[in-house]
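Protein chain data
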Amino acid sequence: MSRDIGVIGCGYVGLVLGAGLAETGNRVICGDIDKEKIEMLRHGKMPIYEPGLEEMVQRNKEKGRLSFTTDIPSLVRQSEVIFIAVGTPSNEDGSADVEHVLSCAKVIGENMNGYKVVVVRSTVPVGTCDRVKEIISGLTSYPFDCASSPEFLKEGDAVADMMRPDRIVVGVESERAKAILIDIFSPFVRSDNPIIFMKVRSSEMTKYAANAMLATRISFMNEMARLCDAVGADIEEVRRGVGADARIGKKFLFAGVGFGGSCFPKDLRALLALGEKTGVDLKIVKAVAVVNKEQRELFVNKIIQRFGENLRGRAFCVWGLSFKPNTDDMREAPSIDIILELTKRGARVKAYDPVANENAKKVFKGVSEVEVLEDAYKAAAGADALVLVTEWGEFRQPDIPKLKEAMRGRIIFDGRNVMPVEALQEAGFIVIGIGRGREFLPK
């Protein structure tokens, strides 16, 4: 049945969630205290780039199922089910800052007008839902249930992950709330993928454990790539051999310059902080974080080995600025560390990204050595080398004659092992990848 649902927070998580819930026939109000963001959404403009999201938002607005507000108290009063989907940034000690989540709990408690299910969608440390429940119960005599349902969205593929998830995890304590959440989530799992019910604390922990496992696979393959370089093996061949093992699988086995974004780095820090707090030494999680940081440094070292420590007078083109393809998200993107390290050594950088240029301009504002351009080949003009950081599809088959004409040098540092090596060799380029065991010289 159609339900009245409120979503507090209109970022990546909340906006995709709200649009997805409206798509299945619910009446959804998305709320945020950011007035500018809400005005953008009311006028049909997206505050984030996510393929397919704009069309889904617009469709459900026109149907009258999706609306936006800054009036959070009104959202609470009009909703039977309220999802909390606000940010949980890192504190200085790496722990997750849940103050925004707890502030939502306070507003909900103050505006209760009947039974409600409060669902924490944000990634939060174990025990946060208990705190939410305590705050609300201290402010109202109305009955309510508090549940946890962490998101497992991949930026760049979030709409598909929302509409066709491989599983939905729900931590819930009461049968009443469970029945309501089954009703809400069932349309998303019609292909028999499961809704997995568990204890609330287990649900909170599941999100961190999943992200830590995925990050571990990436760092493990990056470490194997280092070894491949040392012994003359090729990580791309190794990846295919390892990924063919059904016990391991093919996903998250690509070597590169490391992961970034708003989830993996932040969640690893939060796990490590939780380990510190509870006296559990998370040795593997520590190593994953260290390897990821070092991978960016090792990539820059490949450039230094070719051009020397002093890069003054050198010009580099960087392709790919967002932390991954199909998003404009620059949070903790590897490109930032790599570009700043090059400029620190005296280099000038021209950069290009298919959708993240505006966010990149904000990141590098004030760094006079960095210019962000709207055309990939103009960014390559006069470059001594091309540095590929993010594996956008358009970089897999570049216009090689045009690239050759634009560049001053003939060296490509492929940080994702995606460029057409043989064609570039034929055109006279040197291609240096990650863990390939050798440099690919011109033919």
Observations:
- The longest strand covers residues 4-8.
